[in-house]
Amino acid sequence: MARSSVSGKKTKSFTINKAIIRHLIHSQAGTLAKSFEELLSNSIDAKATKIELKLEQGSFSLSDNGVGFTSEEEVDKLFADFGFDHTTEDQLARGRKIGQFGMGRGQIFSFAKTKWTSNEFQMDVDLEDRESEAAFDFEALDETMHKGCLIEGEFYNQQTLMDLNHTIQSVSEHLAYITGCEITINGKVINKNPKDLYKKWDVDSDDFYFKVGNNAQGVKVYNQGVYVETIPNHRYGISGVLISKQNLKLNMARNSWLEPECQYFKIAKKFLMSMGENRANRKKSLTIEDRIFMIRQMLSAEDSFTKYYDMKIIQAVNGKYYSLRQVQNYPALTVSPKSSSQLGENLIRDNIAFVMSPNCLGWFGVHSIHDLMEKFKTLFELVKHDNRQRWNLESFIKDVKTREFDDFVNLYNGNYMIISKSDHSKEEVVALASLRSKLIDPIRIAVLRSSNLSYEELGTRTIKLGESDIADAWTDGKNYIVLERKFLTKSFNSGVIGIESLVKTILHEYCHTESSGEEHAHGLEFKDRFHDAMFKLAAGPLTLALAKEYYDRREKAELPLKATLTNSIDKSDRIINELPTEIIEQSVLAFS
After folding, report:
1. Which helix (H) or strand (E) segment is 7 a member of?
2. Whole-structure pTM over 0.85, yes or no?
3. In the chain, pLDDT over 70 holds for what percent of residues?
């Protein structure tokens, strides 16, 4: 039996509690700088040609010469009503450049009590004084008090000078490219017309300006001159400034580009991708961001796998970069649990396995070697009908054998043994004497000059001889540096190239202030110290001097000389003789 209606069918609108309005105001308030950006954007939408913002630690004022509020009805619709409809005929006629939601003005209410004077209307807003409601005081005066809009505010919390300067800097950067309106903060103009910034933009179309930058941050996106977000460098392989000439579709907070919904995104994406690819292909030295961009291009199938097959985009645990072809040639592929691993370096050195840095997994968007290979298999399914890409990718997937890192931990016994002086060979005695004579003092001084370490913290380290199956050298971080005996002999017998490697190895160990035996990490402080010391050491002249010293000592000890060493010394003599004396004396303290 059908039921009869008592009231009849009605359509009812949803309503919102006033407490939710207060919550909405406070929750969208990110920073004081963002709230001022919203107010300035409103002034621009109100056709202002001049805006003055004055900021002090306890108060502010913002004045514009825009149209302001022209009736009490407008105050009700455009000030009291949050989230008003921008698509009505009346609102579209206003020709707003920036505003899309009618929410932004509320952000300042979280930071200050404000007095708004617009033409003959005045509104006072103090949400802290009205704890139980979201309301404001309104008054219509009998004369125009300010043509346009004047906002005066007192901060609920006093701003420090540091906070105030940060706010000014942030607002200045985020509104730097506004056109058609002069904006001043404490008397200083902060915006410039993009046309006046560069003689030529890399892109100057009906929709966008774009200028390539050299920073690694990414693409800074401005919606008609107002900052929105920074697209990471690795996404398109390029950095720079992108300024829209059209109104972009943004989220409610106006800090994110709604890419799928915005018709202009596809236009920007097309030229950013093209410029990023061209830039990466021309660069001789790739950054991490460049490599991430290339990896993601490859995995998306938007670019050929073959194109990146021989590019050094894979980071190993030894800090070096390898191509996918080089990785494929190793018997196994694994990943170290740490970014630095002596075991991992040895596995690469001995051609046992390619050990990927764990950081590199993140570039592929995966957490394990298994997931990495699944990525390649997924890519193969996308391109298997394209013979240009298929063969290299198919062979890569077929040849690469993944293994867990723990499978290799027992491969080396991990011994670190110092050899007694009585067990040194005559050749090793000569080698160690040469190092002590020409190398240790210059290296110690170079490290001291490249760090904040004191003489006592760095220590005076003696050179010792040792045996290890996993390390070429190690140190206790203060008293000694141990050179593996096979590495020492091989370095000297390889001529200048081997001796240069020896110099860098000892410098590397001298930069360690803690034990480098077993597993150890190379933090940013260590890397900076090592690179600065390398620069100050002048390793070239020092290498030549050490080679000559070793040659002379071998002759005196009546030890046979290998051809590689003799040829290197002959060349060293010629180079040293051509160097100005003052350069040698400055570069190598042990020459005198």
Report:
1. none
2. no
3. 83
